[in-house]
């Protein structure tokens, strides 16, 4: 009797696992620059003076709660997309706690999102992190890659953060989230930082792809430049088309969107694609029965845009010109769809 019960238990467990695996044939992987998600607490190790109740932005509990509520609406809508939001890279956050506060909001708590955070040495005090669905994604390991700019040893910025995990018990994914150096100080003066970031990105990709030639590698983030910029296209050796890719190639699906006039960030009445998701050839040419890259998108809802005034039709941001707007972010999220057939 005990033996029969044990056999039935094993059969039920195997059936349950099979059903769980068969239930999911699609997954959403995204990225969102949330525009300065700071808490209201003074951290002596961070440049957060503006984002305090007594600071320039009068960043009190009410404004912080409003910011969390706004962002949760966007992320919840992304989570409701067909396939479900499995991983979301995030940038411009102050610390791990703001991610936990965001995950605990009324709209997001039902999704039970977990946080994979890395404390970067960034001078401004902002980090990168991941939200992930622990029911579908199991972390195997993480690693931080510091960025060093040749000839400028005092340059300090965000690390590039690699998370390796298993999606739906079938596919191992290597995902990097990052926020490249900005264009502060001008294009020419700031370019070495982004060039070094592109070189580091390619180094990480090569390390992963050489250790596992068929690795499904994803590189995401606010790269502070368009897909056509040399610091991305040249330094990362990006392919524009998804045809005839080798397992060691990197393909940027945001290139076509940008060429077609679609962007994630508005500047001087034009759209730029600063937020990129780049994938390896193995993810494009995946074997049947495993997850493969299918399509790329910019996530857009009407409520995410300014409805009137000089910033009309721009992303509805938290601050504009130093004035509080009460919006979401100056960036739109981007995402890719993975499917399994």
Output the keywords:
single chain, 341 residues, alpha+beta, Deoxyribonuclease I, Chain A, 7-stranded mixed beta sheet, 6-stranded mixed beta sheet, globular, disordered N terminus
Q: What topology does this entry show?
A:
Layout: H1 2-23, E1 26-37, H2 61-79, E2 85-93, H3 96-103, E3 114-118, E4 127-132, E5 137-145, E6 160-167, E7 171-179, H4 187-211, E8 216-222, H5 230-233, E9 238-239, E10 250-251, H6 254-259, E11 265-267, E12 270-272, E13 275-280, H7 281-284, E14 291-298, E15 319-320, E16 323-324, E17 334-340
Parallel strand pairs: 1-2, 7-8, 9-10
Antiparallel strand pairs: 1-17, 2-4, 3-4, 5-6, 6-7, 8-13, 10-13, 11-12, 14-17, 15-16
Summarize this structure briefly.
This protein is an alpha+beta fold and 341 residues long. The protein has 7 helices and 17 strands.
Task: Explain the overall architecture.
There is one protein chain. It contains 7 helices and 17 strands. The chain is of the alpha+beta class. It has one domain: Endonuclease/exonuclease/phosphatase (Deoxyribonuclease I, Chain A). The strands form 4 sheets. A 7-stranded mixed sheet has the order 5-6-7-8-13-10-9. A 6-stranded mixed sheet has the order 3-4-2-1-17-14. Strands 11-12 form a two-stranded antiparallel sheet. A hairpin with a 2-residue loop joins strand 15 (319-320) and strand 16. The longest helix is centred in the middle third of the chain and has 25 residues, at 187-211. The protein is globular.
């Amino acid at each position: 009797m005990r033996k029969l019960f044990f056999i039935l238990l094993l059969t039920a467990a195997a059936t349950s696992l099979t059903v769980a695996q068969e239930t999911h044939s699609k997954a959403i992987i995204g990225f969102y620059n949330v525009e300065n998600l700071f808490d209201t607490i003074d951290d002596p190790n961070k440049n957060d003076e503006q984002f305090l109740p007594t600071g320039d932005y009068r960043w009190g509990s009410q404004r912080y709660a409003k910011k969390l509520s706004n962002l949760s609406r966007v992320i919840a809508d992304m989570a409701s997309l067909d396939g479900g939001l499995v991983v979301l890279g995030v940038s411009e956050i102050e610390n791990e706690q703001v991610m936990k506060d965001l995950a605990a909001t009324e709209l997001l708590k039902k999704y039970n999102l977990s946080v994979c955070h890395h404390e970067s040495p960034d001078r401004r005090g902002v980090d990168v992190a991941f939200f992930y669905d622990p029911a579908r994604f199991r972390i195997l390991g993480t690693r931080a890659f510091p960025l060093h700019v040749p000839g400028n040893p005092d340059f300090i910025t965000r690390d590039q953060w690699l998370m390796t995990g298993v999606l739906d018990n079938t596919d191992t994914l290597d995902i990097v989230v990052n926020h490249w150096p900005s264009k502060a100080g001008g294009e020419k003066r700031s370019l070495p930082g982004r060039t070094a970031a592109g070189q580091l990105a390619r180094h990480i990709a090569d390390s992963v792809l050489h250790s596992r030639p068929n690795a499904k590698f994803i590189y995401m983030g606010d790269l502070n430049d368009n897909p056509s910029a040399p610091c991305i296209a040249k330094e990362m050796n990006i392919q524009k088309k998804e045809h005839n890719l080798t397992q060691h190639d990197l393909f940027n699906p945001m290139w076509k969107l940008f060429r077609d006039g679609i962007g994630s960030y508005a500047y001087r009445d034009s759209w730029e694609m600063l937020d990129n998701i780049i994938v390896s050839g193995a993810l494009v040419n995946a074997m049947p029965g495993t997850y493969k890259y299918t399509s790329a998108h910019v996530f857009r809802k009407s409520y995410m845009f300014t409805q009137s005034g000089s910033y009309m039709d721009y992303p509805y941001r938290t601050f504009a010109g130093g004035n509080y707007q009460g919006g979401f972010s100056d960036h739109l999220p981007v995402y890719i769809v993975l499917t399994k057939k």
